[in-house]
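WARN  no MSA supplied for this record, continuing single-sequence
INFO  ligand: magnesium ion
INFO  echoing inputs
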Amino acid sequence: MTAPYNPGLLEALQMRYARGAARMLIGGEWVEAQSGETFETINPSTGELIANVASAGEADVDRAVAAARAAFEGPWAKVKPDERTRLLLKLADLIEANADELALLETLDVGRPIQFSRMIDVQGAIGQLRYNAGWASKIMGETAEISAPGEWLSYVLREPVGVCAQIVPWNFPLVMAVGKLAPALAAGCTVVLKPAEQTPLSTLKLGELVLEAGIPEGVVNIVTGYGRTAGAALAAHPDVNKIAFTGSTVTGRAIIDAAKTNFKRVQLELGGKSPTYIFADADLSKAIPAAAMGIFFNAGQVCAAGSRLFVHESVADQVLEGVSTMARGLKVGQTLEADTMIGPLVSATQLDRVTGYIASGREEGAQVFVGGGTIGDKGYFVQPTVLLDTKPDMRVRKEEIFGPVLCAMRFSDAEDLDALAGRGNETEFGLSASIYTQNISTAHKLARRLKAGTIRINGSGGVDPSLPLGGYKASGWGRENGKAGIEAYTELKSVSVAL
Ligand code: NAI
Ligand code: MG
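INFO  complex generated
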């Protein structure tokens, strides 16, 4: 078997970060924060420092927005669609050529097992670029026949929205950064990207590749720093036209408030409390591993994690036994080992949150069926956990835990699809849902009744750049990906000519 990573590369990265704090990318240059401040990013598998990184403040955000504005009004506006396509495809090729380093950075900084960093982050980023590259030349306006007297030519232009702030969380930094960047650039926008303070490193490497691809300076700026400083300054900035954010509902609300200053466009992808349904006729050989990985993958730090399981009573014992066997058997451990399936939580803060939720479940009367504890005294590992006997008003049932914690419930034939959908919908969120049944009518009827932006039937597949992604209710505003995702980076302008 070949090594899951290149030890020479790891050493080179360590030497590089030992030489000094990582800088951010503003107007094509690698700069320190004007204040000189830095912050630490750590490896959640060990709790050890990886690198110091420039900590942006308001002055740095101002510079980055000014650079993005200058590029938007200047050179980038003159770049033709086919050239934008070429640049995005070039960036995709460079990510492919640098897959080893990007996967390693993601594994070190996020705590994602190396096999998944390659499969999900690197491949996902490439897919986003190749999908969106094609859109650059396919953004179409419309013409309209208007009813006013006389003869008119009326048409609707689709223009780039302008300077976009893009704030990314720490669970999938590279693929989310690229998933925001790609449609923005395809549509002709310029961006200021802010990775999460826990996980800035792969985004900075992305910045190097952006320059290497020949994307003009100022089109992509990267500011690293805390949410309450750099993030808040971006959200409130009067010269930012749009803000795209993925993260918590709490911060989503803060962004809406800050965006009011200049009515910037707001796109939000927030949390979830997504249901998985397993019916009596489901193919359990697929449904059981999907239900388990739906919540344990990435230690549950997934916005669309299947955190509530509804299983028909006739197969409930078998399903719970199967999910619990996986919970005990999945290798939780060091992320650079090839066969590790589950890594740590991203930070000590998240470990506290998740263990706090498990404790609150216990206090409120839930039964810990499997797991429930932490692992080791180094790093932020928590056991894959299944809770039974939860009630709808318990915090573990209502709130997003963002850890490997599943609430499992039974249902019976006494509940029709309306009732079952009602249980799935009994949350403020509406991001996604999964359904396992061999009955196509059951599957499609339930899919219609669920208030969720993404429904998966008999398969757990990932996010695809061609499918709109986003949520109903408190799971967000708008959709990323697909045609809707590119249109979200445009403004409409109606032009009427009296002929
Ligand atoms: P967060 O939403 O505060 O952080 C996400 C991003 O927002 C980071 O880049 C952060 O620097 C930035 N940010 C924070 N405060 C900001 C502000 N006032 N203005 C602008 N940007 C700001 O999430 P956090 O605190 O790291 O995690 C807390 C919980 O949020 C998690 O336990 C989970 O439930 C949820 N979450 C959901 C994610 C998703 O994929 N939907 C991703 C990350 C967290
Ligand atoms: Mg980190």
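Residues 94 and 209 are 6 Å apart (CA to CA).
INFO  checksum written, moving to next record
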